[in-house]
Design goal:
Elements (H helix, E strand, L loop, with lengths): L1 H25 L5 H25 L3 H30 L4 H11 L1 H8 L5 E6 L2 E6 L3 H27 L3 H29 L7 H37 L4 E5 L4 E4 L1 H7 L3 H4 L4 H4 E2 L11 E8 L5 E10 L5 E10 L1 H52 L3 H31 L8 E4 H18 L3 E5 L7 E4 L1 H17 L5 E12 L2 E10 L21 H4 L8 H11 L3 E7 L3 E12 L25 E2 L4 E5 L3 H10 L6 E5 L2 H10 L4 E5 L7 H10 L9 E6 L6 H8 L3 E4 L4 H11 L7 E2 L1 H8 L1
Parallel strand pairs: 10-12, 17-18, 17-19, 19-20, 20-21
Antiparallel strand pairs: 1-2, 3-4, 3-8, 5-6, 6-7, 7-8, 9-11, 11-15, 12-13, 13-15, 14-15, 16-22
Helix pairs in contact: 1-2, 1-8, 2-3, 2-8, 3-4, 3-5, 3-6, 5-6, 6-7, 7-8, 12-13, 12-18, 13-17, 14-15, 15-17, 19-20
């Protein structure tokens, strides 16, 4: 019987050692879990072997020695399993030290438990057996074994309660089974000894069974790690980018060759580091929703900029078993972006410089033009000498041509800076066409050209669109047509096509019998600062911006402009715009044009208001003279001030209904004067309307003045009728004794 029991226990030893060798071959170099499990298998095999040797001994002394060696394996087994349970359950800190420390207390009991005088050995039917003599040490051993069992059960229960993953729950249940098997065997041996019987190796058989269950648990645990390891082949040999694999505890397990090259370290050195040691990035980068997270980071090891992609790795139970971190080196891209940012800053500064230059040029040129055109308009209004009037008209034409050039440059600057906006509102197509015909007929008449407008009478008259920009586009093309046509005429043909219930596509076709355009030059026609066939047209005024502005404005209004031409015979420009129709009114006939458009007319003021008081502030005395002269027929009481300080003095002494305040003045400019005016105690003009006068007509200027507190804005050169209409808008109605605004508008049309 004893021989059979020895063979059984020896078989347990062989099986356990074989399992240990498998672990040694596959996993011992991986981590502490593998090393602990390998050690536990060796101790389990030693336990079975030495207890088996006890069974076949005939000498009590030899049996005592074998039993002492077996007891050493028992205590070592207890320590290894305790460590395994601690690491698998995730207990850390002081509690872990207490639990592990208690397992090590067996070392203190060991010398007293192996003493020969405390043991009784005798031969039984199943071989040599033993029991511990009753006493303090047998009691201590019993308490120790019970405490170890309680500790292990506690760890298994703790792991089960805190488990949120299926695999952890399965592992916890398996470990609990192991503890109960070992505990049952130890309890069986202890109870037999306490009853005075010799021990049967029940605990040895139980620990072997538990070891086999533990082996299955170890294999199950390693499934997730094996998944990561299997991925390493792909990581190492297929990916050039730096790749890091972290386990579910966020510990770095695997790096590929790209990662070692990127960090300039060996794989062993890399795996000693944590994420925070490698990258400077936000905290808790592994805590994110979804399966992927991407963050920007700086590598602490080499200072390179990186885009870090983090992906979760799942097991068969959809639990997270690790993270794969792929690093993209974006240093070159970041440097490129920074370089582009610097280039953009330089371009912005250049644009600001260009804008500042244009604004200054606008101011410097418009100021004298304002004086010239204002004085000239006073001559046209007041002179009766036909010769002088002819001179004045020539001055007026030259001034307008110069003003067109300046406006073209400013409009182009607005378009280039993206500050040109399309403002849609209801407008009359009939009035717009009549105004265009009146304005262009004068120029055409001076050159002996025919000007014809062909407009179907049923064309919708009231449309929704940007009247100012539509007028500017058509006027530019008509003016060009008149300019480059020496004989014959210019024809504007309007047609329309309904595209929806309340929308029409308008087509404006402007044909001339002028010099035409060479076919190879048509593509350059809408280029900025480019005048095609310069040798032939150098004597004709122009900046080369008019058609470029037309093209950009038509694009802003989502329309098209096309050109066809026969060199030496003429050209045709076709502009197509889609507009919304308002109401049922139609254009009708445009033949009721104003007669004698070139003849001098008696100037009629927009209004008459002798009780109204206006304060004009400008450092240029000629401009003050112009304002006073332009308002003479309105009978408005105009007071002049040549500085901001003089303005404040006048405002403190008398109330004015409207203050016309120039911006660019030496000493105290217009904005500073307005601020001082609003804050000045004893101000008689606290509620007066303040209108900014300026030669700066750049994009965004009107909004800037309104934001600074001005009520309105008027650009130089000041046109008399425009000034009168603005004053009519803001003067108290009770001061207006004669309103000629409607009459004036009809005369202009």
């Amino acid at each position: 019987m004893g021989q059979l029991l020895f063979i059984l226990l020896y078989g347990f030893t062989v099986i356990t050692f074989f399992v240990g060798l498998i672990v040694l071959r596959k996993g011992i170099k991986k981590n502490r879990i593998d090393r602990l499990y390998f050690t536990s298998t060796m101790l389990s095999g030693a336990w079975s072997l030495f207890i088996g040797l006890v069974v076949i001994q005939t000498d009590p002394g030899s049996a005592a020695l074998m039993r002492a060696l077996a007891l050493a394996a028992v205590f070592g087994q207890f320590i290894c399993i305790t460590y395994l349970l601690v690491f698998w359950s995730g207990i850390r800190g002081r509690m872990m030290h207490w639990i592990v420390g208690f397992a090590w207390m067996g070392v203190l009991l060991y010398p007293f438990l192996i003493r020969r005088d405390r043991m009784v050995f005798e031969k039984t039917a199943y071989g040599m057996a033993y029991r511990i003599k009753p006493g303090i040490w047998s009691g201590a051993y019993t308490v120790f074994c019970a405490a170890i069992a309680v500790n292990m059960i506690f760890l298994a229960v703790y792991m089960l309660r805190r488990s949120i993953r299926k695999r952890e729950k399965i592992m916890a249940c398996a470990l609990m089974v192991c503890v109960f098997i070992v505990g049952f065997g130890c309890a069986f041996d202890t109870l037999m000894q306490m009853s005075g019987y010799m021990t049967f190796p029940g605990s040895t058989i139980g620990q072997f069974a538990a070891q086999m269950v533990l082996y299955q648990t170890y294999i199950f645990y390693n499934k997730s790690r094996v998944t990561l390891e299997n991925m390493s082949e792909f990581v190492y040999y297929s990916v050039d980018e730096p790749v890091f694999l972290f386990d579910e505890g966020e510990k770095l397990c695997i790096v590929n060759n790209g990662a070692t090259v990127f960090l300039g370290m060996s794989a062993e050195e890399c795996c000693k580091m944590r994420m925070k040691d490698i990258f400077d990035m936000q905290h808790n980068v592994f805590r994110f929703q979804g399966s992927k997270n991407r963050v920007e980071a700086k590598c602490l090891q080499n200072g390179r900029s990186c885009s870090v992609s983090i992906d979760k790795i799942y097991d068969g139970y959809k639990d997270i078993i690790g993270y794969i971190v792929i690093v993209h080196d974006v240093t070159q891209h970041v440097h490129m972006v920074e370089q582009l940012a610097r280039e953009k800053q330089r371009a912005d500064r250049a644009n600001e410089a260009k804008g500042s230059f244009l604004a200054n040029m606008s101011h410097e040129i418009r100021t004298p033009i304002n004086a010239v055109m204002g004085m000239n308009e006073m001559i046209l209004r007041e002179s009766g000498d036909e010769t002088i009037l002819e001179y004045a008209r020539n001055i007026q034409d030259a001034s307008k041509s110069l003003l067109v050039l300046i406006n073209d440059i400013l409009d182009f600057s607005k378009i280039e800076s993206g500050m040109m906006e399309v403002v849609e509102e209801a407008y009359s197509l009939r009035m717009l066409l009549k105004a265009l015909k009146t304005e262009c007929s004068i120029r055409a008449g001076e050159k002996g050209l025919d000007l014809a407008f062909h407009v179907p009478k049923d064309t919708p008259a009231v449309l929704m669109g940007d009247q100012v920009r539509v007028r500017q586009v058509l006027l530019n093309i008509l003016t060009n047509a008149v300019k480059y046509t020496m004989k014959g005429g210019v024809t504007l043909t309007v047609s329309y096509k309904k595209t929806a219930e309340r929308r029409v596509k308008l087509t404006f076709e402007i044909s001339d019998t002028g010099i035409g355009i060479k076919e190879e030059s048509i593509d350059r026609l809408f280029s900025k600062f480019d005048r095609v066939d310069e040798g032939q047209v150098h004597a004709i005024e122009g900046s080369g911006l008019g058609l470029c502005i037309v093209d950009r404005l038509v694009q802003l209004m989502h329309g098209t402009v096309e050109v066809s031409s026969v060199y030496g015979e003429g050209s045709t420009f076709t502009v197509t715009l889609e507009q919304e129709v308002i109401g049922e009114e139609t254009v009708g006939s445009l033949q009721e044009e104003a007669k004698g458009a070139g003849r001098r007319r008696e100037t009629i003021p927009v209004f008459v208001a002798p009780e109204a008081k206006v304060l004009a502030v400008d450092d240029n005395k000629v401009n003050l003279t112009v304002i006073r002269g332009l308002l003479r027929k309105t009978e408005v009481q105009v007071t002049c001030a040549d500085s901001g300080k003089a303005c404040l003095e006048r405002a403190a002494a008398e109330h004015y209904d409207v203050i016309l305040l120039d911006h660019m003045m030496p000493g105290m400019d217009g904005i500073e004067t307005l601020e001082a005016l609003r804050d000045m105690p004893g101000n008689c003009c606290k509620d007066s309307v303040v209108i900014a006068l300026t030669a700066n007509a750049m994009a965004g200027v009107r909004e800037m003045y309104l934001e600074k507190g001005f009520d309105d804005y008027l650009a130089k050169p000041i046109e008399g009728t425009m000034l009168e209409r603005m004053l009519l808008r803001y003067l108290p109605k009770e001061y207006i004794i004669q309103d000629n605004s409607n009459l004036k508008r009809e005369e202009e049309l």
